Amino acid sequence: MFKVRELEQFKSVWDRRITPKRREELHEVLSLITEKCSYHSVDACQACQHEKSVRCIMKPFVTFTDHKLHPHHGQEFGDISFTIKMLAMDDAVFVGIAKSYEKKPIKPTDKKAYEMLQQFVYKCKDTTVNVLGIVVAGELEQGFVAVL
User: What distances in angstroms separate CA 87 from CA 91, 92, 93, one per listed residue?
Assistant: First the structure.
């Protein structure tokens, strides 16, 4: 298990320094980011990738990965995928499971945790996936991290 700050691909994002004032402003924005936007069709998702706005938690990945966003359609078991350098591979397939902002840390008994765990287990069976990521605009309780 790795933290974002330990992955070379995310170093440019993790190393960014922001002022306390800007951090406060961004916290407001963070609370507005959702798991999916109201325009979650394939066409709308593709168009959104070229806009300056941020409508969903997956959008920031557009700027620093060779991303593929997976708009919600009821069957997806991963919200974003891209290649990453890790595990002695230059092109390990990363699949991210995204959830919306939560004020409190997500506990193993929460509905959101159950949904993430269901997606996580399903993707563990997928032999085309090398790395699974949990993408949340918030915190995971240590107990839930242990379950994963």
Answer: 9, 7, 11
Whether 116 and 83 have beta carbons less than 8 Å apart is answered as no
* Contact partners, residue 116, CB within 8 Å, separation at least 6: 97, 99, 106, 134, 148
C-alpha 65/C-alpha 75 separation (Å) is: 24
Q: In the predicted model, what is the mean pLDDT of the chain? A: 79
Its pTM surpasses 0.90: no
Within 8 A by CB and 6+ apart from 6, the residues are none
| Residue 13 parent element (H or E) | helix 11-14
The two tokens of residue 51 are 């806009």
**Cα–Cα distance between 148 and 129 in angstroms, integer?**
16
